[in-house]
Amino acid sequence: MGKKNKLQKFEDLKIFKNVLEFPEDIKGNWNNKVFKNNNPIILELACGKGDYSLAMAERFPDKNYIGVDIKGARIWVGANKAIQEKQDNVAFLRAYIEDLINYFETEEIQEIWITFPDPYLKDSKAKKRLTSERFLKMYRALLPESGVVHLKTDSAPLFEFTLESIAKDKTIIQNASRNIYAEATLEPLLDIQTYYERMHLRDGRNIHYVRFQFVD
């Protein structure tokens, strides 16, 4: 039953109007073809079930949100919820994150959220971490000068690795915390909790966060 249900979800993704799977002609056309407006676009990378995209879209209807992940069954959850709740400012891209440059034009997006990605703890897989040098280079190429990147993670090693990575690049760290829920005041939008974050909190893990901006 589980396998059959998963296969059905993949079939659903083909007809969901808010899901694009490895599109070939979308670069530079997200606002025209998908959202039908000129509102700012924010990405959620490693979006899973799209918890952050959905919550931010509800709070800011004047912005467009795109959840990016390769896991189709997870994307189905968020896409289906957006359809049911008529959230027209949310879309999902099923693709490999390392290929973002193939799907977005320079300055087409204004902000990036990276929410609980796989930390790839083995040193041999460090290049796959979403805050490694090659990914930072890609984000810099996509974002405008005012563009901001957020990382929210339960992984202390990934958080420390990220601080080291952005220190080697020309960036401004706007906020950083090794335990956001120990702060006197929780920064806006950090109160959104993904499915995975709720699991991590039940396990007693700290949630780490950093927001940074590229500079010339």
Describe this structure in words.
The protein is built from seven helices and eight strands, in the order H-E-H-E-H-E-H-E-E-H-E-H-E-H-E. By secondary structure, it is an alpha/beta fold. It has a single domain, classed as Rossmann fold (3-Layer(aba) Sandwich). An eight-stranded mixed beta sheet has the order 1-4-3-2-5-6-8-7, with helices on both faces. The longest helix is centred in the middle third of the chain and has 13 residues, at 72-84. The model has no long low-confidence stretch (mean pLDDT 94).
Low-confidence stretches: none
As a whole number of angstroms, the C-alpha radius of gyration is 17 Å
CATH fold group = Rossmann fold
User: CATH homologous superfamily name?
Assistant: Vaccinia Virus protein VP39
SS summary, helix count: 7
Note the overall shape.
globular
Instruction: Tell me the structural class.
Output: alpha/beta
Query: In total, how many beta strands?
Result: 8
User: Which CATH-level-2 architecture?
Assistant: 3-Layer(aba) Sandwich
Q: Average the pLDDT over all residues and give the rounded result.
A: 94
Tell me the name of the CATH class.
Alpha Beta
Structurally, the number of domains stands at: 1
The helix/strand series, from N terminus to C terminus, equals HEHEHEHEEHEHEHE
Residue share in β-strands: 15-25%
Which sheet architecture does the biggest sheet show? 8 strands, mixed
Spatial arrangement of strands, main beta sheet = 1-4-3-2-5-6-8-7
Could you tell me how far the N terminus lies from the C terminus, measured between alpha carbons in angstroms? 53 Å
Give helix % range.
25-40%
